[in-house]
Amino acid sequence: MATSAAPLGTVRHNLPAFLTRVIGRERELADLQARLADARLLTLTGVGGCGKTRLALELARVVMDHYRDGVWLVELAPLGDAELVPHSVAAAVGVHETAGQPTIDALGTRLRTRRLLLVLDNCEHLLEACARLVDALLRTCPDVHVLTTSRETLGITGEIAWRVPSLAVPDLQRRPPVVELQRNPAVRLFTERAVAVQPHFVLSERNSAAVAEVCARLDGIPLALELAAARMAVLSVDQLATRLDQCFRLLTGGSRTALPRHQTLRAALDWSYELLTESERCLLNRLAVFAGGSSLEAAEAVCAGEAIEQQDVLDLLGRLVNKSLVVALEDPDCGGRHRLLEPVRRYAHEQLKSFLIALTRCA
Question: pLDDT at position 129, please?
Fold first, then answer.
């Protein structure tokens, strides 16, 4: 996707055209439109593969008419140097840099009287640089609004954080009928993507249980569902369901034009894992032993020791929640429980096993 743009006033956006439609996000889009109307900075957070970018771009497309000077996308995933962030934004909005003038100052001067929406996609590896730039723009440009996607918030004044949830999945305990499954967001996404590779595929009474199992075991993560559906070119849905224990070997082969970390489920989680500190990785790995989630007290009892003090578990757990790798359950009846989405738990469990094997070999 290109991020460069013609000068302001000649075109109104640089958003890419998508070849597939957004599925199962109608309620989220309505909520986000309302929030963006009241917020100067809105950050979409969530685990890798949950659909932050797709949702943000669809939101930007829907609200475009509210910004007379357009909507401008800046893709930060390819950047490895934080100093390039202001230059990438300047290129996207058509601001020409002047020798001797800091790029952030040039942006502030040029955008001071503009009403536009700036979309910064994939900020998590450049948080400090993004935070400095966005804070400066919001303070000097009263009609500039910013929409960001990141696995962690920017952490600046005025930011509204909105966690992108996984798609709702079927209740396997209740075995809903086919007509109800057809309305389930995760099933809708899986089915549509499956038909793209297997045109004769139809959700039916015979395969509905397997489809529901696939969607539930992948916890409704859109990337995982799309990668699973792609396997329908060579597997039946029943075969797919029985092989999910090997999900990281199975869920590969994403679009050749996608970012490398969106071509396999493992790569998506590798990206998040590599951004953690050693202590955060250690706690995440240990949390994998809780298949159904845990209370804070259970996490403190089981996960403390060997490089993690019991009194540090709360802080580390909070950081993992902020980085979208642990889900804080919102039901007040749960008593402050936390859980890992199942693909994340399996990934962390693999990391824990690898660590224990290496430890045994060194002993």
Answer: 97
